[in-house]
Amino acid sequence: MKMLEKSFGRHLRRSLNENDYRIKFISLYMMAILMSGMSAEAANPFFSSYKTPHQTLPFDKVKIEHFMPAFEKAFALEDAEIDKIAGNEAAPTFENTILAMEHSGSLLHDVSAVFYTLCGSENNDELMALGSKVATMQTEHANKISLNEALFARIKTIYDNRENLSLAQDQKKLVEDTYESFMLSGAALQGADREKYRELSVKLSNLDETFSQNTLKATDQYVKYITDKSLLKGLPEDILTAAGEKAKEKGKEGWAFDLSAPSFSPFMKYAENRALREELYRAKSTLATSGEFNNCEIVRDIVNIRRQIAVLMGKTTYADFALRRRMAEKPEAVYGLLDKLADAYMPVAKSEVAAVQGFAIGMEGKNIKLEPWDWSYYSEKLKSAQYDINDELLRPYFKLENVQKGVFGLATKLYGITFKKNPKIPTWNKEVEAWEVFDKDGRYLAVLYIDFFPRQGKRAGAWMSDINEQYRFNGKDYRPQVSITTNFTKATESKPSLLTFDELTTFLHEFGHSLHGIFSDVNYRSQAGTNVYRDFVELPSQVMENWASEKEFLDGFAIHYQTGEKIPYELVQKIKVAENFNVAYACMRQLSFGYLDMGWHTLTTDFKGDLFEFERKAWAKAIVLPQPKDCLTSTSFSHIFSGGYAAGYYSYKWAEVLDADAYAYLTRNKIFDTETAASFRENILSKGGTEPPMQLYKRFRGQEPGIDALLKRNGIIK
Length: 718
Known about the structure:
This protein has about 725 residues and is mostly helical. About 55% of the residues lie in helices and about 5% in strands. The strands form three sheets. It has a five-stranded mixed beta sheet, sandwiched between helices. The protein has a two-stranded antiparallel sheet with strand order 1-2.
């Protein structure tokens, strides 16, 4: 998934004024340091020029105590820049208003980039406490800008006259996006409504931060220690070894299992002990529903405040408000997509559940009611029986280092780019790798950070982040710095990191996001790379997943880590044949999240009811295997409550429609079609948000997408 930076005003996220602004500030600061007798080494690293390769951020030198002084200075510096723009006595122009804003806030961008990278990957109590303060400061700062009447008047003047200004396409889009951003941030509100918006937005920012912190703390809090090995029957030896090492790290005997993907997922797939599967499932499915890190009231407050903000903006629901900047545009269009897919996939999903239920009864020799904690276990058994394939059979061929070469190699085959590790680039953890990316002509393109493994304080899941976006300024092309973060299976004392097939596709997914950032070729930072509509941003990532089951791709790297044997043709064929195993059930699960998201964000009155009951009703149309009544997803649904996907979770299914259509076109001639890949790079990956996404897609594909390609790929229609 593409995880955006914390939102604190679009112009703040995109802004970077290069060295001219920073140098003035640095000079004054360094003079103060010298006058006070402080040594240069003691200076805050944010206040010095970065003597790093490609001016990458000084992650290795930043300490927690550096953040607050840096944030305070950064806010003050941008305040002065914005005041100068708003108070300009000259008539408003694209250059003295829109472009000047685009290049404001350099220091704030850098500090925020480092801060939120650490919050996602290196969080601790001290950083969390600081995060709560910073969230309030950033929201108040963003409000100060977006509610600046003189500034908005200048923007509106340019917007209203945009057709007469001889603007280039990207400039016109920048004007429109800037105006729309201010409108969505309350700029047109007057009097009491402006103050109400200011109050609600600060509250919402704090709630988002608290939700995120509670989810992380609740996840880290749960560990299941087991000392009786007989209870772990069915678990592969590799999983047991990893669990044993995890227990040892925590100073415990036996085996430790937690809720991170490399621990939780294989336990649910392979553990024969049904009671333990249920215990872990309930721990995962009741996360942050009670106790010290309870998110129940926070969910109520978040959805209510979002709705209240939408009403202030003249909209009935938050979905109506948020979808203004989505390809779907209206809630009706989202529900139309969800309903159409549900109608197509539900009959197949029901037959899949019936097949797993029947297999479970046959396997156990007695009647057994299939429960959610049984699904992965019996599905894996049925898949193995039908196709003679499972994760443990594939793992030996997916050594992480080889997979990484294969993924990089795919980009080389398609686009001609190459990668070189640079240990001199500072990172936020010794496990993080930094790679330089070069174009086919040898030109430097980007820095790519990769952070593979789970650890204490690291958020669950996988995501890509734009640490520094690409843009042009004063005749120079500033190249991007992007990161991929995952929680893959770690190496043990006896074996290297061996990935599951799902982890391989996850790598490809996040790598697709990174290519969107790496190939960016725009003038303005706010339009770079992944700065596109949320329901378009998943296309570059999801289309990459398709290569995971292609023999020509796997042949390039899938080698048995012990024998050196290339993955057998028969095994690749089994992957292909099994590709659509339980695909309808998986689709309905994704649709259930989309329905739940829309349920929360199409409320027309403040919610005061029971979260459990609401959730059951909101996603009822997509549920094939009901959850127990005491389980709840919303309290840990970070995508929509702290991750930027509110009223936008449907994007994953919409992107599947796009990616199925796009992949069929990309590979219509051959698997590694460099000519069509070049078109994809030129029309999709390099253009960012310079044009409406459907225009970009049609330029690449020649037509709008339909759902038939997805239905055919999944075997729903022939």
